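Here is one chain, start to finish.
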Amino acid sequence: MKPVFDSRAVKQVSEKNTARILVLEDERNVGLTLVERLGKEGFEIAWAQTVGEARLEISQRKFELALLDVTLPDGTGFDVAKEIRKSQPGAALIFLTAHGNPEDRVRGLELGAEDYVVKPFHYKELLLRIQNGLKRARYLSQAPESQTDEVKVGEAVVSFSRFEARVGATTNPLTHKECALLKLLVERRGKVVSRDEILNHVWSENEFPSPRTIDNFVMRLRRFVEIDPENPQVIRSVRGVGYQLME
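Its structure:
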């Protein structure tokens, strides 16, 4: 089946939402609804119903964000995510699934997914997640000219444009949130960054992460940058305040 690109749904492009989004969804009703509703928001939507169609789409155009169903007739959304990571690392990834399988969630995060949404989902919630993902993607793509793309942080060499942390011969993908958090710490290197600053910078006003959520993100980053993550020397905790990236 030829990939579907619904130009009718994107004629009225708003100034607020201008981004190209890939929707990989094999359920026709869900796909048509997303094309119509996201198109009315001002997004340019390319809709694919199989892995093959999605591959063709990403070979022909760039996307800022991809909504990827996990289970598809000819493969999985994880397969497409891997290809997007290689060819379009700046694109935010959000997985859509009918199952809240923890293993799938972990696998998505390991591929650098921005978010993971379980069906049936509330449209307004999904829209907020999309807008938040695009906001972080754009922040990460607008690094100051004085800042080089590759930054040494502890044991890792971090590339913000490729969303990865290289440790020796191993390349570890980073999510947009992880990159945004690490970039904030790099920009404030040597200074203590409060939890409130992290929440305001990395998460949006429409998201409500707990303090433990920040701790979990820092724990994951420490796996890449620390010699001994259990005894951190690179990303230091400042009790009751926040975190400090040591010089």
